[in-house]
Amino acid sequence: MNILSQICVNALKDSGTPGVAMAALETEMDVERHTFGLLCKKGNASVRSTTLFQAASLSKPVTAWGVMKLVETGRIYLEDTVYEGLTVRHLLSHTGGLEAVHDLGIRPHEGSGDLLSNVRSAHPVGQFWYTNAGYTLLQLLIEKVSGRSFADYMYEEILEPLGMINSSFSLGHDELVDDVAAGHSYLGQQVPVLWHAQQAAAGLHTTLDDLICFAQANLNGGAGVLQPDMVALMHNRVERPIPYGLGYHILTLPNSTRLIWHSGHNRGFRTWIGFVPKRQKALVMLTNSDFGQSVIADVVRNWLELMIDNVPDSAKQTLDLLP
To answer: Which intervals of the chain form a coiled coil (predicted)?
Structure first.
């Protein structure tokens, strides 16, 4: 057991989080996988690298690949207007000034309502305001341009070609799977199985093995699914003051180390993924508890400190790593 996995085990016990799946990529092909704990607090089935977790907002960078595939093939352009003067670029980078909305999830038999009902302007266009609303609009755009359901398009054009064959944007709506993690609330109670109508923003179900494929594709310039220049564009800030690229948070650390990252939080789940392209390193973490953020914080903080020695408090605050 290496340093990071021991830190993960200790944090898991301290937080009361039932289970975690994590992977550290030392290079694109040098991968260490670790799984600890249980699918469900009241059960005895163990988390595996094939266990499905809700990715939560890790859905957004994956969705961004789907959008950029349409850009690369010339079916849409980043400056195309999508909604009330807002462009594809605005929506990918959370600079459209839309009001923050959240998808708390619904039971499969409940109706999702009108996806556009919560899309409202609230801030000046061009400023960074994180929201699910822009990705809901991108979900509808993908369906309109491709002529397919969002989930089908994403599986056929992005997930399957990347080798993410066990991942899905529709799972939980009409399918039951045995090897799936149950979410747990801050009270330690199991969260009901919920479906997220805002699929592009929060609806991905994925596994550790599949997110390793995604991390590798981000490190190797697209894995043939996107061209390297498209991936590079996504990994850079849309403007210098904006801490976001096209689907990813961007954070510059000491020694000109650029961290490309995203976190996720659905009810009962906390997730994280990050890449340091300059050093060909990546980290993936999936947990099945609202308390999973403390596990993620301990591991991410130590992962970064092993690379750059001293992580500034300002970076820790941005990454939600402070106690």
So the answer is: none
For the chain, residues with pLDDT lower than 70 are: 1, 102-114, 172-176
Reduced to 3 states (helix: H, G, I; strand: E, B; else coil), residue 88 is helix
The whole-number pLDDT of residue 18 equals 97
Residue 323's pLDDT is 73
Domain containing residue 158: 3-58+151-318
* Residue 81, in any domain of the structure: no
Residue 100 lies inside a defined structural domain of this protein: no
pTM: 0.94
| Residues in Cβ contact with 92 at an 8 Å cutoff, skipping those fewer than 6 apart | 64, 67, 78, 134, 138, 246, 247
In a domain, 296, yes or no: yes
The predicted-structure confidence for 254-288, as pLDDT tens digits, reads as follows 988 899 999 999 999 999 999 999 999 999 999 99
Q: How far is CA 45 from CA 191, 227, 233, 302, in A?
A: 17, 40, 41, 29
Q: Tell me if 162 is assigned to some domain.
A: yes
Rounded Cα distance, 166 and 159, in Å: 9
**How many domains, in total, are found in the chain?**
1
**Amino acid letter at 195?**
W
For position 174, what pLDDT does the model report? 46
How many separate helices (H) and strands (E) can be counted in the chain?
11, 10
Show contacts of 309-314: CB within 8 Å, 24+ apart.
Answer: 309/254, 310/254, 311/253, 311/254, 312/253, 312/254
Can you tell me the distance from the alpha carbon of 56 to that of 200, in angstroms, rounded to the nearest whole number?
10
